[in-house]
Amino acid sequence: MELDAAFEQKNEIARAVEEELEKAMSAYGYEIVQTLIVDIEPDERVKRAMNEINADTFSMVASSDKAEAEKILQIKRAEGDAESKYLAGLGVARQRQAIVDGLRDCVLAFSENVPGTTSKDIMDIMVLITQYFDTMKEIGASSKSNAVFIPHGPGAVQDVASQIRNGLLQGNATNS
Q1: Residue 37: pLDDT above 70?
Q2: What average pLDDT does the chain have?
Q3: Cα gap 4→147, rounded to integer Å
């Protein structure tokens, strides 16, 4: 009988021992009323082997549970990241819609107040100005930015010089 089966069938073993003892002892005038098996004590090597098996089983279950928990955490992180990106996209879409609404109102007001301008002319200028300011914002926001925009072309130096001269003259006029 295997050890596990012996532990499971303690009562059957007790009855078998009782029957055998009854047969052997009845000849001497003894009556066996009941036999109890309190504990089954296997050899020390068997105990160690059983403990190792139990430890390995618990270790495998713990590893499996840990892997499952890590899997759940990764799934939850991915779901949270996806939700965050979705909400950020909604925010960007709302921002762009507000910009479009504002631009439309500006174009209508400008074309009503300045005769001879078309909405295309106004939109072209507004897009260029918006791109310019967005670029400047990005350059200013970066701590490692070392880009400087200088106009280039045949008249660029003269334009830069006149802008500096005008700036200085305006500064002097303000200080006077």
Answers
A1: yes
A2: 82
A3: 79
d(CA 11, CA 37): 8
Amino acid, res. 128:
L
**Nearest-angstrom CA–CA distance, 115 and 124:** 17
Asked whether the predicted pLDDT for residue 157 surpasses 60, the reply is no
Q: Which residues, other chains included, contact 123 with Cβ-Cβ below 8 Å and sequence gap of 6+?
A: 103, 107
CA angle 33, 36, 38 (to 5 degrees): 165
3-state secondary structure string, the chain?
Answer: CCHHHHHHCHHHHHHHHHHHHHHHHHCCCCCCCCCCCCCCCCCHHHHHHHHHHHHHHHHHHHHHHHHHHHHHHHHHHHHHHHHHHHHHHHHHHHHHHHHHHHHHHHHHHHHHHCCCCCHHHHHHHHHHHHHHHHHHHHHHHCCCCCCCCCCCCCCHHHHHHHHHHHHHHHHHHHHC
Say yes or no to pLDDT of 86 above 90: yes
CA-CA distance, 60 to 105, in Å (whole number)? Answer: 68
Largest CA-CA distance found in the chain, in angstroms, rounded: 138
